[in-house]
Design goal:
The protein has helices at about 10-15, 25-55, 65-75, 80-85, 95-115, 120-145, 150-160, 160-185, 205-244. With about 240 residues, the chain is mostly helical. The longest helix is centred in the last third of the chain and has 40 residues, at about 205-244. It is globular, with a radius of gyration of 19 Å. The N and C termini lie far apart (about 40 Å).
Length: about 240
C-alpha cells in the first residue's frame, strides 16, 4: 500500500516534464522545482541522519528515533502532491495520488507514531530505508525533468531501483503493521465501541488487518505497472546497447 506509493501516480507525477505538450506554466514550474528540491534535500537529511546514527551507535537497532521528526515532516509534506493534482499543475489522478500518499502518511502517523512499541522494530528501519532511497531518486527525477535536463543515471535509477526497494518497503510496512496488532487490540487504540450516542462502532484492529490484506491485490498491480514503465522508458536504450 504505502511503499508502493511510489507507484502509478508518482510515475505520472514525475513524468510531468516529459509531457511537454501540456506542461505547467512558468510560475507553476518554478514552484514545482522549489518543492522538489526541498523534498530531495529533506530526504537527504533523513539519509544522513540514519548513517550518522548508525556510525555513532554501531548498530541499526532503534535508528528510527534519530530521524523521527524529519521523517514525519517530509512524509506529511507529500500531501501537497494531492493539491498539485487537484489544481491541475500536475496531470495525475487526484484519487489515485491521494490514496498512495495518504497510505504512507497513515503508516507514519496512525501506526508508527501512535503505537510507540513498534518504533524499535527492525521492520520500521526496513521501510524507512526503502522510502528514503526511493524519495531521493524520485524527487531528483522530478526536479531535473522539470528543468528539461534529466541525467540518464537518475532516469535509470528511477526505473531500476524500485525492483528491490518496493518489495523491501512493502515487507517493512506489513511487518510493522503486524507488530502493532497486539498493542492495538490490547489498548483499543482508535476503536469505538457500542453503546455510544452516535450508535457507531469501529474496530481499528480489524481495520489494520484489512489494510494488510489490501496489499495482496494492490502491490502486484503497482509493481508490474512500474516494470512496464521501465521497459517503455529504458527498453529502447537497452536494445540499442545490445545491438552495439
Amino acid at each position: 500500500m504505502s511503499a508502493a506509493t511510489a507507484g502509478t501516480s508518482k510515475a505520472a507525477h514525475g513524468d510531468v516534464a516529459a509531457k511537454k505538450k501540456k506542461g505547467p506554466g512558468a510560475l507553476a514550474t518554478a514552484y514545482l522545482v522549489i518543492y522538489n528540491v526541498v523534498m530531495t534535500a529533506g530526504w537527504l537529511v533523513i539519509a544522513v541522519g540514519l548513517v550518522r546514527a548508525y556510525l555513532a551507535r554501531g548498530s541499526y537497532h532503534g535508528l528510527y528515533y534519530s530521524i523521527e521528526k524529519p521523517l514525519k515532516f517530509f512524509q506529511t509534506g507529500a500531501v501537497l502532491e494531492i493539491v498539485h493534482c487537484a489544481v491541475g499543475i500536475v496531470p495525475s489522478s487526484v484519487v489515485l495520488t491521494g490514496f498512495q500518499v495518504l497510505s504512507r502518511v497513515f503508516l507514519t502517523w496512525a501506526v508508527t507514531h501512535s503505537v510507540r512499541e513498534v518504533q524499535s522494530e527492525d521492520s520500521v528501519l526496513l521501510f524507512v530505508a526503502a522510502w528514503t532511497v526511493t524519495e531521493i531518486i524520485r524527487y531528483s527525477f522530478y526536479t531535473f525533468s522539470l528543468l528539461n535536463h534529466l541525467p540518464y543515471l537518475i532516469k535509470w535509477a528511477r526505473y531500476t531501483f524500485f525492483l528491490a526497494l518496493y518489495p523491501m518497503g512493502v515487507s517493512g510496512e506489513l511487518l510493522t503493521i503486524y507488530a502493532a496488532l497486539p498493542y492495538v487490540q490490547k489498548t483499543g487504540l482508535y476503536s469505538v465501541t457500542l453503546p455510544n450516542k452516535y450508535n457507531f462502532s469501529f474496530d481499528y484492529h480489524g481495520f489494520l488487518i484489512l489494510a494488510m490484506v489490501s496489499y495482496i491485490p494492490l502491490f502486484p498491480q503497482l509493481y508490474f505497472h512500474m516494470i512496464r514503465q521501465r521497459k517503455k522508458v529504458l527498453g529502447h536504450v537497452e536494445d540499442y546497447c545490445k545491438v552495439e
